[in-house]
Amino acid sequence: MLPSSPAADHPLFALPHQYQRDRAWSLFGPALLKTEWSPVTLPWLNDDLMNEYWQAVADLPKPAFNSTRLGLMFEQLWQQSLPLWCDRLQSNLQITSAQRTLGELDLLLSHKDQQWHAELALKFYLARGTDWIGPNSRDRLYRKLGHTRDQQLQLSAVPQAQQQLQQSGWQQLQPTAIMRGCLFYCAADPSTSGLPAELNPQHWRGHWCYSHQLNALLPDGEWSLLAKDQWMSPALLATAVDRRTLINYAERHFADLSYPLCAVRLCAGPYGLAEQQRWMIMPPQWPDEGVHQRLQAKPQN
Length: 301
Prior knowledge:
eleven-stranded mixed β-sheet; alpha+beta; 11 strands; globular; single chain
């Protein structure tokens, strides 16, 4: 699978379009978790398949995304790619009971006479003390782990789901979770005692700090800012600014706005300026008041 920090000359950056890099990173990038219910390497998506289908995945057309939400875009990239080598695929199957929706199964797939129920997630969390918190502070990693393991992956086994699945020819499904994304370590205190036992040691990682800490913590280099729809994979860009220009922009930004900035440190390579380090810059009121002016999200215990 792809390394968690691709060098500037890595073949990932040879893909000229962001949607190609997003798709390759979604499929073949580093997993966030390493557990029995969310393994790093999937039986139907291993290194051999990556080598065999890398070019076929790259040649798929640009997706017609139904949403600008990163999680839904991530799901569509998987849905578009898996038919290349899976025998059968069904997505977003709603499980109902007595006119009530119990939930939705993200993916059902068949490969070499085996069948899986897969739940997909693209997540970004920041270390704060012993917790991992999303840019939207209502989102917590430990809560997400419990919800995925104890609820989402169990849905395909409930009687109402079993009846619907059997009618559609799905049986003996193996549940598995697929989680991608980045964990941001506190630049002011890189040590953390709150690493989940389920974490993949080779996960994608970055750094975070508050806006008022940039002068002290942000390293020298060439930098750029990413729009949220550019967060999914390591960035390849054409232009950059120096450290002082980035800090000046961030100071003006946080004087009026309260949503985070995602900054990337770049290195020149054969394909352009390739991301080598990622930072999340947070407003001073996070996480107690969320990150958006209209979102006052208090942390939940």
